[in-house]
């Protein structure tokens, strides 16, 4: 990444002295974002390039672009079951009926900065996404495909990850409706039916 940054002034690289997790990395990037939208693309080449291109092409069609993994069943049975189960639980609890809560998302920086995303690790995305949906922001859902899964253990399947996700969900349930944002500042068109 340092080599990329040296050859392109648009690229900024930040190195943490110690591992802080994906949530902390996203929070750091958000605090320094210079444009209207922000996203996080995993560095392990988890997603096929065509899907990433579709995601960027959809920017501007709604307040948010929410991607969904259209080939999750290609992953291990264990990971596939856990992912589908998490989606089902979140859909039942919050009623947004999304196709995926844990894929790539393009967020509006303006609104993301106004909500309190109090979640580390993998929970930050669920917290941010549900909070923005509760504000009434619109979205489009775009399919993306995963690359073949690399062998080895996944951090997504660890006990600590499960505990973080449970804590995130509980905190979201306790703070509904969101109290930290001036609802008068929600876009005028936020009441329209979310795009799909």
> Can you give the helix content as a percent range?
25-40%
Quick one: overall form?
A: globular
Class of secondary structure makeup: alpha+beta
Strand content: 5-15%
Strand order of the largest sheet: 1-3-2-4
First-last Cα distance: 35 Å
Which runs of at least 5 residues are low in confidence (pLDDT < 50)? 190-196
Task: Please tell me the overall pLDDT.
Answer: 82
* Rg measurement, Å: 17 Å
What is the strand tally? 4
Number of helices: 7
Major β-sheet annotation: 4 strands, mixed
> Can you write the helix and strand succession as a string?
HHEHEHEHHEH
Overview of the molecule:
- The protein is α+β, with helices and mostly antiparallel strands.
- About 40% of the residues lie in helices and about 10% in strands.
- The protein contains 7 helices and 4 strands.
- It has a 4-stranded mixed beta sheet with strand order 1-3-2-4, sandwiched between helices.
- The longest helix has 18 residues, at about 75-95.
- The chain is globular and about 45 Å long.
- Mean pLDDT is about 80; it is low at about 190-195.
What is the gist of this entry?
Helices cover 39% and strands 9% of the residues. It has 196 residues and is an alpha+beta fold.
């Amino acid at each position: 990444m340092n080599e990329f940054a040296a050859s392109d002034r648009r690229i900024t690289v930040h190195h943490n002295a110690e591992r802080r997790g994906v949530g902390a990395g996203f929070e750091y990037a958000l605090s320094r974002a210079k444009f209207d939208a922000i996203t996080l693309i995993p560095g392990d080449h988890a997603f096929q390039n065509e899907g990433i291109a579709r995601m960027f092409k959809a920017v501007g069609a709604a307040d948010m672009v929410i991607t969904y993994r259209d080939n999750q069943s290609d992953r291990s049975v264990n990971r596939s079951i856990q992912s589908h189960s998490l989606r089902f639980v979140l859909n039942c609890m919050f009623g947004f009926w999304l196709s995926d809560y844990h894929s790539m998302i393009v967020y509006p920086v303006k609104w993301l900065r106004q909500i309190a995303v109090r979640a580390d690790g993998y929970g930050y995305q669920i917290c941010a996404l549900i909070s923005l949906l509760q504000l009434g922001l619109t979205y489009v859902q775009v399919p993306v495909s995963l690359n073949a899964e690399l062998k080895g253990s996944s951090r997504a399947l660890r006990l600590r990850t499960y505990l973080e996700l449970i804590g995130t969900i509980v905190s979201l349930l306790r703070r509904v409706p969101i109290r930290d944002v001036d609802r008068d500042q929600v876009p005028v068109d936020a009441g329209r039916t979310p795009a799909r």
